[in-house]
Specification:
25 helices, elongated, alpha+beta
């Protein structure tokens, strides 16, 4: 898909050049991802450095689960990426399929950028530099770690190549190739399709105006035919959207992200000058820099740096153009590349900026009004990176061909510094697809286990990881599990045939449990730096606490934990066998002062308690129980009080009673002696 000018005498053919750059990029990809290739069904590309700290595998696991189930919500189906992923998942599993599609983007992007650069720069060396620089941009490496669809960057250079070829020498064949390339960009990634649509007018007009070819009628005919082809592509895309999801066109506000998100997910102008968060030498400083500015969730979007050395190389053709040395096609085309880069950079910034009393509105504010379902405008940085890579290729080729050795030394030095800025050592970029090392340990066990994962409810992607565990597992938040810190949890787990519990060290429950011996009914199993295993060793109880209702989340103190309720709280017990003389002993504290609390068994009032404002234990005689559920209800005599009204601590909750620990025991006939029932 390239053409050479008559004055060009390339030392390497286009076909051989593509094969060479593909092979080099493939080798570098193998070097970066070698550990992943040793266990492709267990590992993902990329470290956690640039990903959200709270839930780093969220986006990757969402796509992996879609590959596994073969189900993608209609509005989210991006067929050129998703359909190959489904097919590969049937052959090698969803995790390996995800990794193959991710890693393939590096050599494919290098080859695609080489073709574009060879057409624009007319030099093999410049095209090699541009292809490799584009393939391993920090933008691409970062998104390959978390966003498979955004990592499909190979289609963008092919689209620009088809567009510029059509503009140069328009005919039906080139128009058809342009339509196919536009479809490939949009169907591989909605975001990349949106970005391509926005920059296309600038890309086309700048090329036609500053084309190296002398002006004639065919240039304007090319502009007209290419614009008509792009209009047809846009119309076809809108038609497909209308057929698949008409509401996206008729009511785009229904799919809108909050406008405030644009400020979080847009690039800072200085992001283009900062090394990647995964950089082996500077990465820790970069992460501290972003953390100091409160950027964690959207840190991935700020990975748009292009490298200072690459910028210096890119400045060479622009400097030559300004000096009037415009004999080389690579130099004559510099204004086109700069124009496109500047427009893409401005589009990547936040909607507005206020300086003093003036507020400057930027393009993302206008684009949001048209397409409010897009918020990550920092992704326009991929176009900036592509233009810089092309100009750097031109600069490196010019320096290398200087008649003196100084040019070659300068080119070699700048390219070496670029390699240093990108990745000075093999960083072995990989992470486990499972959330913690405890999960990986469970996955290696040959015997059948039943596991409770005490993940905080905010980490919803853990539910997507559990099918990859190879064991039966439940997530915190799945009834009847909403509290891994509750007393006598081992009794409930034993009654429900659970064998292990996964606890994360960075969770409130994990920190509290780590500071004390294992809870009764549970024993410490294998421990890891990010998590540990609790083994269920409780005997099967005759009675256990299944669920609490009407209670706020658990709170932790130095020596105890508790849950507050408002006016009424419900304790659901389960008897596994008949029992007589059963007593429920509970630890209670009233708020703000002592209260009278009535208690009921299965709706029948059995008594009342005078609960003090300090922790005390109270016995509730339940009598004889038959197998099945029994409900104990605690009801305060007066209304619950808002904590802030009493303590002025900003707590808006209405509190009446706190429940601490509990146990059940059985009183023998005649009241002599007591037997523990296991809960």
């Amino acid at each position: 898909m390239t053409e050479e000018g008559p004055a060009s005498a390339p030392e390497v053919s286009v076909r051989r050049g593509v094969i060479l750059v593909f092979a080099v990029a493939l080798g570098l990809t193998v070097l970066l991802a070698a550990p992943l290739m040793l266990a492709p069904s267990e590992r993902l590309f990329g470290s956690r450095a640039s990903l959200p700290r709270e839930d780093p595998n969220r986006d990757a696991l969402t796509v992996i689960d879609q590959f596994r189930t073969g189900q993608v919500p209609g509005l989210h189906l991006q067929p050129l990426t998703d359909l190959p992923g489904r097919a590969l998942a049937r052959l090698m599993g969803p995790v390996a399929a995800y990794s193959v599609l991710t890693l393939a983007t590096f050599p494919l992007s290098a080859a695609a950028a080489y073709l574009l650069a060879r057409y624009v720069l007319r030099t093999h060396l410049g095209a090699m530099v541009a292809g490799l620089a584009y393939a391993f941009l920090p933008f691409h490496v970062a998104h390959a770690a978390g966003h498979l669809h955004i990592a499909q960057t190979q289609w963008l250079p092919l689209y620009l190549l088809a567009l510029w070829r059509c503009a140069d020498r328009p005919d039906l064949r080139r128009a058809a190739l342009l339509l196919a390339a536009a479809a490939a960009v949009g169907l591989s990634s909605f975001y990349l399709g949106f970005i391509a649509a926005v920059v296309s007018p600038v890309v086309l007009v700048a090329w036609v105006i500053a084309s190296p070819r002398p002006p004639d009628e065919s240039r304007w005919r090319g502009l007209a035919l290419t614009a008509l082809t792009l209009g047809a592509a846009c119309a076809a895309g809108l038609f497909l959207i209308h057929r698949a999801a008409p509401a996206a066109l008729l009511r785009p506000g229904a799919f809108a992200f909050p406008r405030s998100d644009l400020f979080l997910y847009s690039a800072k102008w200085w992001s283009y000058l900062i090394p990647a968060a995964e950089h082996p030498l500077a990465g820790s400083l970069v992460r501290e820099f972003w953390a100091a500015r409160g950027i964690d969730e959207a840190r991935l979007e700020q990975q748009v740096g292009v490298g200072w050395s690459l910028l210096v190389l890119a400045a060479v053709p622009l400097w030559l153009w300004l000096r009037g040395e415009r004999r080389s096609p690579a130099v004559r085309i510099a204004p086109v590349l700069v124009s496109v880069a500047v427009v893409a950079l401005v589009c990547s910034l936040s909607p507005e900026r206020t300086i003093g009393s003036f507020t400057f509105v930027r393009p993302s504010a206008l684009l949001y009004e048209v397409a409010p379902m897009f918020r990550a405008y920092a992704r326009f940085g991929v176009v900036v990176g592509l233009m810089i890579a092309l100009m750097a290729g031109a600069g490196a080729a010019w320096l290398w061909r200087r008649p003196t050795s100084a040019g070659r030394r300068a080119a070699a030095l700048l390219l070496g510094l670029t390699v240093l800025e990108y990745a000075p050592l093999p960083p072995w970029r990989w992470r486990d697809v499972l959330p913690t090392r405890a999960h990986r340990w469970l996955a290696t066990q040959s015997r059948t286990l039943r596991v409770l994962d005490c993940a905080p409810p905010s980490r919803w992607s853990n539910s997507l990881a559990l099918p990859l565990l190879g064991q039966e597992a439940s997530l915190l938040g799945t009834p009847p599990f909403d509290d891994c810190g509750e007393p006598r949890l081992g009794d409930k787990l034993s009654a429900m045939d659970y064998t292990h519990v996964v606890v994360r060290r960075d969770s409130p429950t994990g920190r509290w449990l780590a500071a004390r011996p294992a809870p009764e009914g549970l024993g410490h199993g294998p421990e890891f730096e990010d998590s540990w295993i609790l083994e269920v060793n409780a005997d099967r109880p005759s009675l256990y606490m299944r669920e609490l209702r009407g209670f706020y989340p658990r709170e932790y103190g130095q020596e105890a934990s508790w849950r507050w309720m408002g006016h009424t709280g419900i304790l659901r017990l389960v008897a596994t066998r008949p029992s007589e003389g059963t007593v429920l002993e509970v630890e209670l504290k009233a708020f703000p002062g002592s209260r009278r609390v009535e208690w009921f068994l299965d709706g029948r009032k059995l008594g009342a308690l005078a609960v003090a404002a300090e922790w005390r234990r109270y016995e509730l005689p339940l009598g004889g129980l038959v197998p099945g559920e029994a409900t104990v209800t605690l009801s305060c005599d007066g209304p619950a009080m808002v904590a802030n009204d009493v303590l002025h601590n900003g707590d808006p909750r209405a509190l009446g009673l706190a429940l601490g620990s509990w146990r059940t025991f059985r009183v023998a006939a005649g009241g002599a002696g007591a037997q523990n029932t296991g809960s």
